Every structure is written in C-alpha cells, then in structure tokens.
Amino acid sequence: MHNNSVTEFILFGLTRDPEKQKAIFGVFLILYLMTLLGNFLIVVTIKMSQTLGGPMFFFLFYLSFADACFSTTTAPRLILDSLSQKKIITYNECMTQVFAAHFFGCMEIFVLILMAFDRYVAICKPLRYTTVMSQRICGLLIILAWVGSCIHSTAQIILALRLPFCGPNIIDHYFCDLQPLLKLACMDTYVINLLVVSNSGAICMVSFIVLLMSYVVILYSLRNHSVEGRRKALSTCTSHFIVVVIFFGPCIFIYTRPPTTFPIDKMVSVFYTIGTPLLNPLIYTLRNAEVKNAMKKIWCGKG
C-alpha cells in the first residue's frame, strides 16, 4: 500500500454540458429501471416456474442476477452524478467499484461460457445430456464461476491498491476502472498495464475465442439434425451469440491494448456496463418460447 495524498477522486462523467447532463439523468434512469425490471422478471419467473427447471434456465437465472448487479455497480452512480456539479468519489468507494464491476463482469463472462457449454452438450451429446448436466454438476460449475470471478477481481484490486496517487485526481470516466486510474498514478504504469491486459484482456479474448469455437462446433453438428431440431437449436444459439458479440466486442476494445484512452472509450463502456445488462433479458425472453409461456402463466395467470 502506498501513502496516498489523494483521499478522493472527481469523476469527469460522460459530459460537462448541463443540458446533456439532464438528458443523461432521464435516459439512464429509464434504462437502469428497465434493466432491473427485466432481469428481476427473469429471476423470479425461473424461481417460481415448474417448467423452467433445466440447466439452461439455471444458468439464465445467474446471468440475469449478474446483469442486475453489474449494471448496479455503475449506473446509479452515473445517474446521481449527472445531477451534481462535483462528482466526488472517495478512494475507498472507488476501489470498491473497481472490485464489484470486475467481479460481476467476469461472472457474466463465465455464465455465458457455461450456457454455451450447456448448448454444446444438448446438441452434440444429447444422450449424455442429463448425466453431464446434472443438478450437482451445474451447481459446481456456478460455484467455480463465482470463485473464478473472485480471483479475477481480487487480482484487479491488488493492482489498483498498489497505485500511488499524488497529483491530479480527476478521473476521465463515469466510473472507477483501472485504465483511467493508471493515467493518474504517479509512477511508471507500464508493467501494471501489462498485467491488466494479461488479466482482463486475456479473459475477454480467450473466452470470446472459446465461445466462437463452441458455436462453430454446434453449428457443424446441426447438419445431422431434423429441420425442426435445427431451427430450434439455431434460434437458441443465435440469441446466445448476439449477447456474446454485444458484450465481448466492447470488452476486448477496452482491455486489450496499450495504456491509451480514447474519447470513444466512455461510450463503449456505456455499451457493455449498461447496454448489455438491459439487452440480455430482452434477447433471451423474446427469443425463448418457454420463458415467455412461463412468464404469461405466472404474471398474467394464463394457463
């Protein structure tokens, strides 16, 4: 730990323009509430429904939970800050935000991988599906995802806590993340940036490649299926794939490059910290008949 003369930071936010700030308040408040509502509906529907008991819905439950939490690490702060002139965040709050954002972001990545694995087993090894994806194994996989996320975010926070801050304390971002913090540190951050890229960047890249490969294998094995089976599998995989691209594109852009920050970074971050958690429930529910039917039963009382 370094002696910091800086005890608080000022977040620059998305813009300094007062008119735009009012718009940001309105737009992001609505987006955030929709995110919470959408993910809450999925979580409650899966918990209450008798029909959504399969591994796919078990993982979808955790994806929605991680989405709601991930959005909560950045959105409320952005919304409240858009109303205040000085967007002050204490050093401890800043470090907590780094930890939480990486924890739930990483959780989301691991759950997306588990969902792809589940589809792979269902489509490529249908006879062994119930044994491979038993409740016990699914439970263990989720525990591994929690532990993996914890290791990742702990590594990030250790790097962040090692940074000494002694001068400027304005973070050119709307939340605390390692990239903008590295710019403020009064030390040579080359090595730390390499570690950030090899940690966050590698997780993003490797996960993305693993997911892409799994979908290629799934699509290849679909050629032997009936037309109806192919259509159903394609529909599920397409929605998964859309989510994967929306989430990983921005992540790879932010975390796999030298320590430069671009003006577009903030908009890209908005996309995956606020956009993805909102889109996930929409993509999964609108494309999944079983979830839609279960929701109708529970929320509208239609049998």
UniProtKB/TrEMBL annotation:
Q: Name one GO cellular component term.
A: plasma membrane
Database matches in PROSITE patterns? G_PROTEIN_RECEP_F1_1, G_PROTEIN_RECEP_F1_2
Instruction: List, alphabetically, the PANTHER family matched.
Output: OLFACTORY RECEPTOR
Recorded name of the encoding gene? Or4c31
List UniProt keywords, sorted A-Z. Cell membrane, G-protein coupled receptor, Membrane, Olfaction, Receptor, Sensory transduction, Transducer, Transmembrane, Transmembrane helix
For this UniProt entry, the molecular function terms from Gene Ontology, in alphabetical order, are:
G protein-coupled receptor activity; olfactory receptor activity
Where does this polypeptide localize? Cell membrane; Membrane
The G-protein coupled receptors family 1 profile domain extends over 38-284
Q: Where are the transmembrane segments?
A: 23-44, 56-79, 99-117, 137-159, 200-222, 234-255, 267-286
Its protein name is Olfactory receptor
Q: Name one Pfam family in it.
A: 7tm_4
Q: Describe the family membership recorded for this protein in Swiss-Prot or TrEMBL.
A: Belongs to the G-protein coupled receptor 1 family.
Source species: Rattus norvegicus
Q: What topology does it adopt in the membrane? A: Multi-pass membrane protein
